[in-house]
Amino acid sequence: MQDNEKNPVVKFKVITIFPEFFKPMLEFGIFSRAYKKGLIGFETIDLRDFATDNYRSIDDEPYGGGSGMVFKPVPLGKAIKKAKSEKKTKVVYLTPSGKLFNSDLAKELAKEKDLVFICGRYEGIDQRIVDLYVDYEVSIGDYVISGGEPAAMIVIDAIARQVEGVVKEMDSVVKDSFYDGLLDYPHYTRPETYNGLRVPAVLLSGDHKRIELWREKMKLVETLTKRPDLLERARLTETQKKLLKEIKEQLRKLT
Ligand code: 6GU
Q1: Looking at the domain assignment, is residue 21 inside a domain?
Q2: Which of 99, 145, 146, 156 to probe ligand 1 with, by most ligand atoms within 8 A of CB?
Q3: Fewest 10 Å CB contacts: which of 37, 94, 170, 254?
Q4: Which pLDDT tens digit goes with each residue over 159-196?
């Protein structure tokens, strides 16, 4: 898959044995629109093109024995060198042993101009590639999936959303879950009553100040009830701290 000719804000390059995996990203949704507008660059690099034998083999048995196969350093090293055309390229290796990906890391990586992603398969890649070339080892969660490709898609999409202009209204990115370390407030649309459940009255009041306050409060309620761990790390504003105190007091009264 070749990159478009425009001058993107961030360029993503993915080293993979399954380039076809990424085609839908360029066909549907927000990422595809940003790519077509030239805001973001995207390119896949087929690892097998860098194989050094007639069988196009890119993996081998692990030294020391054991199960699974390991990506050989020679083809992968060549693919990385090809991908690292620009000086300031950063290399991201997707692995369950990596640092847990989150909104802060997405924002940090969105400041880069040129990012290369290595999608592992099998037991992993030769450690010397990590030692020599990898800047970030990134995991998408505490579970194992069969290859780095779906993880790369997730990480790339999340980074792209932080690039100015990719999401039409940056306002909606700022209000997304996690942007300020909290979960989002609940959303409602027509009809007013659905299966006997009414939309919260405040949202129909037309009183924007009250609606804002309700939403701020609900973000805290959502986070407190579903992800209390996030609250410990979130840097709350004075207003949020006050609201949280009120919420906790109300909850205490209920129990
Ligand atoms: Cl990045 N890759 C694989 N294979 N499994 C994972 C992962 C990545 N993150 C969590 N599990």
Answers
A1: yes
A2: 145
A3: 254
A4: 999 999 999 988 888 878 888 899 999 999 999 999 99
Average pLDDT, the chain: 95
Q: Which of 160, 183, 216 is the last residue of a domain?
A: 160
pLDDT of 144 over the 70 cut: yes
Are the C-beta atoms of residues 136 and 92 closer than 8 Å to each other?
yes
Q: Name the closest-CA residue to atom 7, ligand 1.
A: 96
Asked if 35 and 24 count as a contact pair (C-beta separation under 8 A), the reply is: no
Residues 149 and 201 in one domain: no
Domain membership of residue 31 (yes or no) is yes
Domain CATH code at residue 73:
3.40.1280.10
Tell whether 219 and 128 lie within a shared domain.
Answer: no
Please tell me whether residues 42 and 88 are part of one structural domain. yes
249, containing H or E segment: helix 238-254
pLDDT digit string, tens, across residues 225-236:
999 999 998 999
Do 143 and 215 sit in the same domain of this protein? no
Question: Which pLDDT value is given to residue 86?
Answer: 67
* 151 alpha carbon – ligand 1 mean position (Å): 6
Contacts of 221 (CB under 8 A, 6+ apart): 247
Q: Are 246 and 213 in contact (CB under 8 A)?
A: no
> Among candidates 151, 143, 141, which has minimal Cα distance to 120?
151
Number of structural domains (the chain) is: 2
Enumerate residues lining ligand 1, CB below 6 A: 94-96, 139-141, 143-145, 147-148, 151
